[in-house]
Amino acid sequence: MKLDTLVLAVIAIFAVLWVVTAVTGLLTAVPYGWLGLIPIALVVGLVVTVIYQRVTNKEDNYYTKNVDK
Known about the structure:
Layout: H1 3-28, H2 37-56, H3 58-66
């Protein structure tokens, strides 16, 4: 495994742990803690949309494989 892939995996694991900790902390801050879930949901939705668009974009895949060498 390449070093950059390993570092990206470690960062992703810490990001997931941070989100889980933030959500758990917000839910314990009753009754207004659930309002903090709205920005977290928006950021997660944006990240998922960006990753989906990048993975399904044929033009970007072509340039990544053929031009950027």
